[in-house]
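During the no-cost extension, the postdoctoral fellow (Dr. R.K.) reprocessed legacy sequence entries with the updated structure-token encoder. One reprocessed record is reproduced below for audit purposes.
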Amino acid sequence: MRQKFLGNLIFLILANLLVKPFWILGIDRYVQNHSGPMLYGAYFAVFNFTFLFHIVLDAGINNFNNTEASRDNNFIAAYASAMLNIKVLFSLLYVAITVGLAWFTAFDGLQYKMLYWLMLNLILLNFVLYFRSNIAATQRYRLDSMLSITDRLLAIIFCSVLIYFHPWGRTIDVMHFIYAQTLALLITLLMAMVLSFSRSKVFNYSLDFSLMKKLLKRSYPFAIIGILMTLYYRLDGVMIEQMLPIDGKEQAGIYAASYRLFDATNMIAYLFATLLLPMFSVMIAKRENVEDLTKTAAKLLFAGSVFVAILSFFFAEQWMPLLYHQADGYWINIFKLLMISFVAVSMTYVYGTLLTAGGHLKLFNILAFLGLVINFSLNLFLIPHYKAAGATWATLITQFFIAGAQMYLVYRKYHFKVVVKDTFKLMSYTALLIVFCIICLHFHLPFISAAVIISLSALVLFFVLKIIPLNAYQLFLKKGA
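Re-encoded structure tokens follow.
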């Protein structure tokens, strides 16, 4: 299973690296620079607001479906109709809740227009994710990988046309940015539907409320996890704008600038979870040992996230102003802290996914609730005093608490062995990368030159320290996975 994981992970990461960084650093950054921090901050606040309740769209169905379908090949055909009925009903409920609560905010007319289209985009995305979960559950991982970038690839094409050819006589604005994503998601949804049902000879639609009720009873723990995690991931952007009446939109825009870059790296880490959930589910159902796969994924993700965090921390002053024209020391410090928290978030994609696949949902929910309480309390205290920087500290503290607690629970529940030698290798890798960065700064190397040196150093250290055993690569190459 480790070789299958490594092979599909490489394919998945390469596919996403070709598309998603261009979306974040090219299209999204262009829209933010063109719009300015206030207008983009208004968009970012609405975007986060719609995300606060997006779990209502899912009700835990996607992760539940992925977990169960991975264990039972007949699950998809038996429950597809009920799943889709639930999703339609919860989409209507989501719209009602989001629009209703939006009346209690300070959103202006343009923000309400954004709200309606962003809600539609999330509904389309949620249906895409459901059909993708069917594809991943049947172990068609590479097909799922291609679908994971299809909507962004199409949106890049549509936005590029707007930026460079000005079909309506002016360049892209925030609303055109949203419309392009809507069209891309609609096309991707149609593709995902066709591919999902391609292996099903018959699809019988029926409205069976008793079956829907049964599924909801089984999936509600997944829904609670999603609600709690979404709240402490997305609450900060909304709280910044709402708690700072004078410069809330501007502060939200400043926070959004760094958060978008954080999101770009986070997308790569999230790919681990999309592969690991069905794999863990299959292995647990077969009573196979998951320690080897878990530690392999955790080491890979730790090494990658530490590399990104260290490089970002030491060289933010050189390249942040190149990405954002208004960036100053305040912007840079926010970015540095967010990228440190990326290391913790990365670990949750391994250990949190294993807890989910293993059915330890009660523990996961308790932990997620504690994370929400910590994040909300810290934001409530820090934002009025330190504005966007306060929200960044709240994120950092919350994410490291969640990651540490999840690791503790996994090691305890699955009786994993703590290998001091492995820990020493990872700490040595981290310390040496920091030393190389300090040396590059000491000699005043340009960012590009330093980035190349640090990247090569990280690669050499990864193999020299044998963070992943060499036999894993040998088996991978032999299988051609």
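The longest helix spans residues 2-52. Residues 318 and 447 are 6 Å apart (CA to CA). The remaining legacy entries will be reprocessed before the final report is submitted.
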